[in-house]
Structure formats: structure tokens, C-alpha cells
Write a structure and sequence with these properties.
Distance between the termini: 34 Å
Shape: globular
CATH class: Alpha Beta
Helix content: 25-40%
CATH architecture: Alpha-Beta Barrel
Radius of gyration: 18 Å
Number of domains: 1
Largest sheet: 8 strands, parallel, barrel
Strand order of the largest sheet: 1-2-4-5-6-7-8-9
CATH superfamily: Phosphatidylinositol (PI) phosphodiesterase
């Protein structure tokens, strides 16, 4: 049975809309590929461990197998994170399930565990009532199947779907999707220097509750603050070492958290995705309480 801690998120927030609303003043913690520092990345155990640590959202990756099943794995191949080899999309589910996940972030030196690559359905059921889920669909071709799975499981209020957009293009195909408006959608884009507010105005038709961006200048985040407030959008930033948002990364945050997470918080960031979840949660717990929405 899941612990009371694991269940607390569903008690506080009945759906992901209420969690990510700017009415919720908390800075949200997003565990990248689950809590992979304590379990194999993208595994059921990594989802469970993140929930036990009080994480609000886990980010997981999904893609389709050769026989049309959605599995939770990041890479195009099995090689790094499992005991198997081969291209995921060219392998059937039975072949993928015969492999075993490697510890942590994987690699040839990582020990092989007894865990299998989960299906998307298994991952969503593991998360249900414990933690909300950000689904990263690795290939746009697979998105209709992802949406169908979410709907079949009745998980529309449990997940947020993200896709890349180009604000300046003025073209957002997701607006024509039959699921748009029923499942939260998060656009992702790189801020054009000095034009964050403009970019936000350009995507207003998406009516997004949260946006994930990369930036070159921290001042650009502040430049979009009023527009974020006007449209009621929560701002998500990655501090992953591979996120390429200047030096606002996890490695630097481990030695000087206030110069990374603290500066982002002051710039109005309301959700941070990190690979150093435990350290980030400790930092959050030690911050003075903030009453303003992000």
C-alpha cells in the first residue's frame, strides 16, 4: 500500500489543473525521468521514489514499439539503460520486456536490476493518486497513441502533455487536435532575447496553464513576468546540466543553490525540473515562506 506521504498530493490537489494554477503559491518540483538517483531512470520504482520524496510531478519519456505498444524509455535504443540492445521502435514489446533495466542513469558499468521497461499504462497507474506526470512523447508520430492511452485510463487530470512550438510562426497544429482543451498542454520554446513578453502574447491562443522555456539571459524571464501574470501562466525552467540555460544548472546549484534556484525563484519561476531532487527539496524547505503566486 502506498504511504500517506505518497497519497498526500491527490488529497491537496484533485487534478493537475489545480496543482499548476498560479493560485498555488508553491514552487513545484519535477523529477526528471523519475528519481533516477535512487532507482533506474523511467522505472516504476523511480516514480514511486519520487512520490515518497514529495515531488509534485515526474517527467517520463515514451515511444512506441514495433508492435504498437507504448513503453517508457528515453533513448532511441535499449543499449544505455537496459541489458538489451537494439532500436526501440524496431523491437517488439516481448523483446523489450525481456531486457532488464540498469541502475540509475544506466551505462555499461551500471548494474543490471530485476526491473523491466514499463509500459506507459503501467507508469500512469503507478503514479495515479501519488504524483502527477509530465509525458515527453519522444516522437510526434506517437502522440495520438499517447492521448488514446491517457483517455482510456481516465488520466486526463493526472498528466500534462508537452510539445515544441515556435511562437513567431503563428502556426500551432495542436489547436486542431481533438484532445486539446481536455488534457493540459505545455508549449516548449527558446525565448528570443528581449522578446519573452512578445512570445507569450503570440501563443495566447494556446491558453496554456504552464510554459517550459530555455533562455540566454535571466533578465528575459523578468521581462515576461507581467504577461505571465496576465495570462495566468506558470513558468517552468529546467536546471538539468543538459538544459543549456546558461549556468543555471544542477551542478552549480549543489554548491550555491541561491545563485541558481534562488535567482530563478526571484525571477518568477514556479516549477523547476531537476536531476538533484533531494537537494532541491531541502533547499525549498529552508526558504522563507512566500505568499505570492508564481
Amino acid at each position: 500500500m502506498p504511504s500517506q506521504t505518497a497519497r498526500s498530493i491527490s488529497v491537496r490537489f484533485p487534478d493537475i489543473f489545480s496543482l499548476i494554477s498560479r493560485e498555488n503559491p508553491d514552487i513545484l518540483t519535477i523529477a526528471h525521468r523519475g528519481l533516477w538517483t535512487a532507482a533506474p531512470e523511467n522505472s516504476l520504482t523511480s516514480i514511486r521514489a519520487a512520490a515518497e520524496l514529495g515531488v509534485e510531478i515526474v517527467e517520463i519519456d515514451t515511444q512506441v514499439t514495433a508492435d504498437g505498444k507504448l513503453v517508457v524509455i528515453h533513448d532511441a535504443t535499449l543499449d544505455r539503460t537496459t541489458s538489451g540492445t537494439g532500436v526501440v521502435s524496431a523491437s517488439d514489446l516481448a523483446t523489450i520486456r525481456s531486457a532488464r533495466l540498469r541502475e540509475g542513469g544506466g551505462g555499461a558499468a551500471a548494474a543490471v536490476t530485476g526491473e523491466r521497461v514499463p509500459t506507459l499504462e503501467e507508469a500512469l497507474e503507478e503514479a495515479r493518486g501519488r504524483v502527477f506526470v509530465n509525458i515527453d512523447t519522444k516522437y510526434p508520430r506517437d502522440l495520438p497513441l499517447v492521448i488514446a492511452t491517457v483517455k482510456r485510463l481516465g488520466a486526463q487530470g493526472q498528466v500534462i502533455i508537452k510539445t515544441d512550438v515556435e511562437p513567431a510562426s503563428g502556426k500551432f497544429p495542436v489547436l486542431d487536435a481533438d484532445w486539446f482543451g481536455t488534457i493540459p498542454h505545455m508549449p516548449m520554446f527558446r525565448i528570443r532575447p528581449g522578446r519573452f513578453a512578445e512570445d507569450l502574447r503570440l501563443i495566447e491562443a494556446l491558453r496554456t496553464p504552464m510554459v517550459e522555456v530555455k533562455f540566454s539571459d535571466i533578465a528575459d524571464l523578468d521581462g515576461g513576468r507581467e504577461e505571465l501574470e496576465r495570462q495566468n501562466i506558470r513558468l517552468w525552467i529546467n536546471t538539468l546540466d543538459v538544459a543549456h540555460s546558461r549556468d543555471f544548472n544542477d551542478s552549480r546549484a549543489l554548491t550555491d543553490p541561491n545563485r541558481v534556484w534562488g535567482v530563478l525563484a526571484e525571477a518568477g519561476v514556479g516549477a523547476i525540473q531537476t536531476d538533484t531532487v533531494a537537494d532541491f527539496k531541502r533547499w525549498l524547505a529552508g526558504r522563507p515562506a512566500k505568499g505570492a503566486s508564481r
